[in-house]
Amino acid sequence: xxxxLLVNILRFIMLLxxxxxxxxxxxxxxxxxxxxxxxxxxxxxxxGNKAGLIFSSFLLGLTMDMFCNSGGIHATACxxxxxxxxxxxxxxxxxxxxxxxxxxxxxxxxxRFSFIxxxxxxxHIVLFILEAFEFRFIGDIxxxxxxxxxxxxxxxxxxxxxxxxxxx
Amino acid sequence: xxxxxxxxxxxxxxxxxLLLLGISLALTIQSHSYHRSKVISSANFLSGGVxxxxxxxxEYLNLKTENDExxxxxxxxxxxxxxxxxxxxxxxxxxxxxxxxxxxxxSKVIHNSYNTHExxxxxxxxxxxxxxxDMGVINSLGIIxxxxxxxxxxxxxxxxxxxxxxxxxxxxxSNHFGSLTWDGKSTGFVQLEDVPRLASIRKGxxxxxxxxxxxxxxxxNIGTVDKISTKANTSSYVxxxxxxxxxxxxxxxxxxxxxxxxxxxNLENKKKNE
Lengths: 168, 274
What we know:
The complex is a heterodimer. In chain A, 67% of the residues lie in helices and 0% in strands. Chain A is an all-alpha fold. In chain A, helix 3 (50-68) packs across helix 4 (73-93), helix 4 (73-93) packs antiparallel against helix 5 (110-132) and helix 5 crosses helix 6. Chain A has six helices and no strands. Chain B is an alpha+beta fold. Chain B folds into two domains: 45-161 and 249-266, Beta Barrel (Thrombin, subunit H); 167-243, Beta Barrel (Thrombin, subunit H). Chain B has a six-stranded antiparallel barrel with strand order 1-2-5-4-3-12. In chain B, strands 6-7-8-11-10-9 form a six-stranded antiparallel beta barrel. In chain B, a hairpin with a 5-residue loop joins strand 1 and strand 2. Chain B is globular. The termini of chain B are far apart. The mean pLDDT of chain B is 80. The interface between A and B is large, with 35 and 41 residues. Chain A: Keywords: Membrane, Transmembrane, Transmembrane helix.
């Protein structure tokens, strides 16, 4: 149990660091940048402490906001994703997900992909709505959500494959 | 009483979620109003320090362009110096063309965002160097933005690529002025609004800062007229201005510390109070 906590703390710091140092500076076509730091929320243990997840997601988002000068948009999006994560699990893996041992950082199955897809889209749409904050930009919001989601999913899957533990 | 405790324990996750959601939404809403004291900004010890480290690496990659720009500016300043009528006289304190008595603080951009609707720049000097909110920021090519927040060692700048920034600007050849805003679309263009239709404007005309604000001195370059359109039902133009600056590639900047600023603000406040 203790090692799981340590892994989570390490993941928190590592993902935040690579997000700030590398991915925040990637601007495809001027406005598309991936946000693979939400992998922390996606990869959090399924049966882990829920209050811990919500609170650490809030801290994760708040740190991102500090570096992006964006008020509280990342914090809001992260807290929403963290709270609705069990519902997304139910949606992707079926009702009895709690009794299965789901390991997300394993080979990619349709269920795992759909879980990542739904999580990323929810996070990004909240993020970009709050960033624009006006409904006359609705086209812009959807466009940014679409392209950024694609890039986030690609980078997330690459990162999952890179940090996959080679125990077996 | 027992039931209240049971309720809290049963719904602890939901209550935590609602509490944190409320805090983050409050921060978001607060950050969307222009006149604010920002709680979460990159002008602090942690993010400022990290950005400074990252910038130290990036700087090496841009040394060549930075040098080219400095050489160009040196050449311009030299030509000003050599073309003076009487070189024995001491130069007046306002050697930069068009600048009223003002101090210039040199600083460096350590983080620059340009991919959102509200963009901010972080500089590596702050209140210790005498920087205060609402000072103007320029570089050798034109204006950059206005200081938003300061900490002892860092400060953040509201970039002109920020939809909430409004800067007074005018045509260089006449005195028709308007308000400079950004529509959030392209990083190379800003919009000059509320220019009366009486003004004769041609493509390629230069736009400079107007003398009406206390933030920027009059006559600092902004850009050239790219496209002129009229707003429906009004008698004013909306001009698409092509910036002289490449806002995606900023190095050293100058912060203008106007000496007249406090005097002007006091004067205007007095007028309002009467």
